[in-house]
Amino acid sequence: MRWNRFWILGCSTLLGLFFIFAKDAPGGKKRNPPIRTIIIDPGHSAQTPGAHGKFSTEEGVVLDVALKLGKLIEANMKDVRVVYTRKTSNALASTLKADLNERAIIANREKGDLFISIHCNSAGPTRRVTGYKTVYVKKGKRKVATKRPIYSTSPSTAEGTETYVWATGKNTAKTESLRESPVIMLDANSEGANQVMDMSDPETFILLNTLRNTYFDQSLRLSTLIEDEFTHVGRISRGARQRDEKGIWVLQATAMPSVLVELGFISNPEEERYLNSEEGQQEAATCIYKAIQRYKDELGRYSTPDNEEAPSMQPTPISYKKGTGRQQVTVAKGKTTKATPAKTIASRTSIAKKTSTKEKNTKVLASKGSSKNTSKAIASRKVVLKPSFAYDIQLMITDKKYRSNSTIFNKLAGNIRQEQITINHKRLNKYIWGSFRSEPEANTALRKAKQLGFWNAFVLPLKNNNRLASR
User: Fold this and answer.
1) What are 247's strand-pairing partners?
2) What is the model's pLDDT at position 15?
3) Fewest beta carbons within 10 Å, which of 111, 174, 382, 465?
4) Do residues 36 and 113 lie in contact, with contact meaning Cβ atoms separated by under 8 Å?
């Protein structure tokens, strides 16, 4: 009996040790969730109902689908928090502009990792000629018979789904949203969280452009997955695309990957019946949910374990405007390390002083020592060149050829350059205006270019005459 007790005690100890080491094993490392918060935005409201069908409105349909989508996410993604911009038919503000602004504020305040705006499409009625009638028109003293067409209208037959991301022409606005949302870079409880990023600092400008480009790629990937899921259930897909016209302000105003989903054409009687049915709404919500799950799984493959540092470069310092000095903040997840104001300027000054002191000492040693020692001292010194930054404005890409003195560029003071590129085996011409020495100067030039009709113009930053970001 005594031996049985020892045997049971020994087995229990071994099993306990096994589970402890199994928990701490490398294979058991818990990974950071790639998506923590999803913002679901049902478009419009009772005050601005959006598109109309024969018996329903856009705001009601998209709200039903949004709530179904949220339930699917909450039931199957336990590690994801769902935030709705609205859960009722009421508007968020008294005017349309204020309502849209409030939606973006909610998304940025809740620190969303993904923004999904849900809408319905609409198209005007189809008009076709069914016959002609004779009309007598008086010309002078006599009447002349003329034939005029007789038209009949019928509801639009346009159908299918679409998913939009912001167009590259809105890149500046998206970057501005990132600049005004430092919570992207900082912990919400840190002192720097409420400061505004200093875009005159080239490194900050480059960092935000890189982040914006990453969000663009992620948004485009998600939009493709959503349309792919719609085609799997037999829906007609009109594709994932960029949109540069009215109606997508929330995409460029949210500091996160963002897409706008058009569920179908409510102006088409057949699609209206489908979108108002329980089956149709559940199917649409399921398609979007499956696309989010695929997108989340793809991001999860590259996420870093909680107890392991990511094999990446050191974080780039970000400049923030505060008083007259400049504060450098090095950002890491969950903590911030602050330096004294004007640290960068001071450090550069000290480096310059040390360099000049070393040069003087080298000269003294050279005068006392041999020429051989002098050459070794010079060879051992490292020359560090300060990078130079400049900014160009890409005006347009077209198949037409213009001279630099063409009338289209008359009101643009400065150098206009032409570059030839090939897209889809077609040779096109890219027109560049610049360069400008500072980012504020480039932004002023960009506003002027857009006022003159170059709607898709954007800023191209350069470092040592090499382009850093081009979209």
Assistant:
1) none
2) 53
3) 382
4) yes
Pairing of strands 258-265, 114-121: parallel
Residues 397-430 have pLDDT tens digits of 887 888 888 888 888 988 899 988 876 567 888 8
401 Cβ neighbours under 8 A, 6+ residues apart: 418, 429
**Which residue in this structure is represented by tokens 């999803």?**
38
Alpha helices by DSSP H, listed for 307-458, are 343-368, 371-380, 439-451
pLDDT at 221: 92
Q: In this structure, are residues 327 and 320 in contact, taking their beta carbons and an 8 Å threshold?
A: yes
261 vs 181, residue with greater confidence: 261
Residue 209 has pLDDT above 60, yes or no: yes
The amino acid at 84? Y
Give the chain's end-to-end CA distance (angstroms, integer): 79
- Asked if 158 and 267 count as a contact pair (C-beta separation under 8 A), the reply is yes
Mean pLDDT (the chain, rounded): 74
Spatial distance between the Cα atoms of 119 and 144, rounded to a whole number of angstroms:
51
The two three-digit tokens of residue 37, written as one number? 């918060």
Residue 305 carries which DSSP code? B
Length of the chain: 471
Q: How confident is the model at residue 302 (pLDDT cuts 50, 70, 90)?
A: low
The model's pTM: 0.56
Q: Could you give the CA distance from residue 168 to residue 242 in angstroms, rounded to a whole number?
A: 8
* Single-letter code of the amino acid located at 437: R
Under a CB-based contact definition with an 8 Å cutoff, are residues 219 and 226 in contact?
no
Span 16-39, pLDDT tens digits: 545 444 444 444 445 567 899 999
Q: How many CB atoms lie within 10 A of CB 367?
A: 8
CB-based contact 434:393 (threshold 8 Å): yes
Q: What 3-state class would DSSP assign to 73?
A: helix
Q: Which two tokens stand for residue 243?
A: 């949109």
Nearest to 187 by CA among 329, 42, 347: 329
User: Which of 155-169, 322-336, 373-387, 393-407 is predicted least confidently?
Assistant: 322-336
